[in-house]
Amino acid sequence: MYELGLLPGITVEVVKRTPLGGPIIVEFLTQRLALSLKEAHWIHVDVLS
Amino acid sequence: MSMSCHDSSGEHVLHTNSQANPWINRIVLVGNPNCGKSTLFNLITGMSVHVGNWPGVTVDVKMAQWKVDGEIWEVVDLPGSYSLLGKNADEQVTSNFLLSQEYDVILNIVDSTSLERSLMLTLELLDLQKPMVVALNFVDELEKSGATIDADKLSEELGVPVVPISALKGINIDALKEALKNARLPKLIPFNRSLENLIATLQKRDNLGRFQALSSIASEQTDMDEIMGHLDGIHPQEHIAMERYRKAHQIAMGVMKKLPEKWKWSDMLDHVLLHPVVGIPTFVIILYLLFKVIFAVGQPLTDLVAGAISWISVVVTTHLPNGLMKDFIQNALFGGVGNVISFVPLVFVMFFTVGLLENSGYMARASLIMDRPLSRFGLSGKSFISLILGFGCNVPAILSTRAIDDPVERKIASMVIPLIPCNARLPVLTVLGSALFGPQALVAVLFCYALSVVFSLVLAFAFRNVAFKRMPTFFALEMPPYRMPSLKMTTKLAWFRTKDFLHKAFTVVLLATVVFWALLTFPLGADVSQSYVARTGTFLSRTVFKPLGFNWQMSSALLMGLAAKEAVLSSLGQLYKASGSALVSSLASSFSSSSGIAFMVFFVLYVPCIATMAALRKEVGPKWTVIQLVVQLVVAYLVSLGAYYLSYLLFV
Ligand SMILES: Nc1nc2c(ncn2[C@@H]2O[C@H](COP(=O)(O)OP(=O)(O)OP(=O)(O)O)[C@@H](O)[C@H]2O)c(=O)[nH]1
Ligand SMILES: [Mg+2]
After folding, report:
1. Which of B224, B339, B360, B420 has the smallest number of CB atoms closer than 10 Å to its CB?
2. Are B361 and B392 in contact (CB under 8 A)?
3. Pairing of strands B71-77, A31-35
4. Residues of B in contact with A35 (CB under 8 A)
5. pLDDT mean across residues, chain B
6. Where are the domains positioned within chain B?
7. Atom of ligand 1 nearest to the CA of B486
């Protein structure tokens, strides 16, 4: 994940949820990444706590 | 640009007049996935490697020549990479190349519409301490979005030439050439004091280069206590990444005038195409239209080519005396290979339309929609494109699984693709369907398609849960913005994939048809019913195929199908000595409806053609290929047996 630039401390914004509970699209470093809900959840908690 | 040989900041100007003293032999293109490396590569070398609006398109190393003012530079296209320390297969190809091969200049391609993120890799490349040039690609899009980047200032920050270009539009390529001739060693951009101390210590102690020292810190190869002492207990790889991010952020903020708005249009489209309610029917409609267009355009073309080939076959063979030679040309060459070639238009149209969807950015969305449903079967949305390609031809579909980064998923996807009915299976199913159900043929064909899709998913589930008891790795896919697909690029992409199909026609299929032709023709002078194939077919029809009610013609035709699926039709024709509607009626009268249905089911599910087996062996190795073939054969047999008894109950 670090390689993708997804690092602790950076701001990640959820821009889009996808149908059927699919991955969500997040934006950071002016870039967009689709992440499965499980992963995204984990990241979220990690970042905000 | 500095002309001195050595200035105070430690920069070196390697050569200022390269005309007199050519020093570049090899340039490597390095950058994030989907930043346009292959587009630039094709533009400057005139090659046509695979390009797509999808990360992970290039999966191995491609080289070609670039002729610049009388010099010849070798250019290397590498797979996209986020980091030289990355763990996925593509990234390792790139870092292995950079660390172990000879080259003179790194040409770092940067997607200027996501500068900050791209700079993370740029900063890492600088630590290789090789002459480097940065190309700011996508300037056309950047300008459209109203943003600008101060290239001179960026060049100053990085200590290497920076040239804004557009690989797609061919903008500023001459400036890029000049910059490459003036490539120089980058200046050193220091990390924080404690990390720098650690690097220096390691460099001295183990006699390492800067990059090697860094990667040994990141991979924790060195004494952990020592490292942790220096880095306040933060995981070293994370520490390094944080440092780079801070730097990248700082540089990007300093050189960008306004942030790009490349998502404005995409967001509007996504609002509909990824809408929780509207998104699903749209997805279904798009897939339906996809197949509709493929057959509406591809089928007539294929009929045309098939007609032309049989016309040529007649012209060529009428003047030949009857005998072995004529039979060989007629049946093995025109009947076998000619038949495969007649599918080229259909396959090309298929790959072209799928390519349009890929390059527009929609395929990435489709794989998000399909992610959850596919995950129930042990796959992820990333397998979706490969599965769809399988409907065209299994061979390129299996090769395309290389873009899937989870190795277990890649294996599973490759192993279920042979169950996806390729274009070659369609005409056989159509003829069988008409023989059995007359005007209701289409329903029977669609049923067979549905059956094979269902069983490919069942098999995926079984492979994931029985053979590979490992959870899928996390799903992360970089989202490309929607783009107008370029016709030229899409044509190239479709041609690239069709070439796999053609290649198959002239190698494996040619060989197999010759072998099977011989088995059908010898012993010489005897009737086909006495040929080696027919004898084997007869044997099979009296043993394993007896419960299914397959006669010797059907069993022999299935054997011939190993060369190529479409060969089942031509060999049925030969064995029944009939073709067209005459074949349909001889088929109809020669088997019961139960055995006919069982035959259709067996045909659509049983092992793939030899070319697909070869592709599979290349991707998953001999062991898994054998397992796959055995499993698929057993499944086909059992399902077909079930269909036999079920239809017996229903129809008799
Ligand atoms: N507008 C615009 N589009 C571009 C430019 N360069 C590349 N593209 C498009 O960007 C997409 C990705 O291009 P590729 O050349 O396949 O990217 P790559 O870096 O080789 O990608 P990987 O092989 O996956 O690492 C394609 O759809 C190209 O048409 C550019 O300068 N301007
Ligand atoms: Mg590429």
Report:
1. B224
2. no
3. unpaired
4. 474-476
5. 85
6. 3-181, 280-470+490-651
7. 29
At B483, give phi and psi (nearest 5°): -135, 150
Query: B138 CB less than 6 Å from ligand 1?
Result: yes
Average pLDDT over residues B56-61: 70
Integer Rg of chain B from CA: 29
Alpha carbon distance, N-terminus to C-terminus of chain A = 18
Residue B110 near residue B124, CB atoms below 8 Å: no
CB A28 within 8 A of CB A13: yes
Half-sphere exposure of residue B62: CA atoms within 13 angstroms, side-chain side: 23
Where helices occur in B438-566 by DSSP H, the ranges are: 441-462, 487-506, 508-521, 532-542, 552-560
For B638, residues 6+ apart whose C-beta sits below 8 A from its C-beta are none
Antiparallel, parallel or unpaired: β B71-77 and B26-31: parallel
Interchain contact A9–B (C-beta under 8 A): yes
pTM of the shown model: 0.69
- pLDDT digit string, tens, across residues B280-318: 999 999 999 988 898 889 889 988 998 998 899 888 888
Phi/psi for B6 (5° steps) reads -155, 110
Name which of A11, A25, A19, A35 is nearest B481 in CA terms: A25
Question: Which amino acid does the sequence have at A6?
Answer: L
User: What tokens appear for B275 in the block?
Assistant: 């809408």
Domain B3-181, CATH among 3.20.20.70, 3.40.605.10, 3.40.50.300, 1.10.150.130: 3.40.50.300
Query: Poorest-confidence range of B45-59, B91-105, B207-221, B246-260?
Result: B45-59
Q: Model ipTM?
A: 0.82
The tokens for B95 are 């870092």
* Structure-token pair, residue B222: 């060195």
Q: Does residue B38 have its Cβ closer than 6 Å to ligand 1?
A: yes
Q: Is the dihedral of CA B334, B336, B337, B339 positive or negative?
A: positive
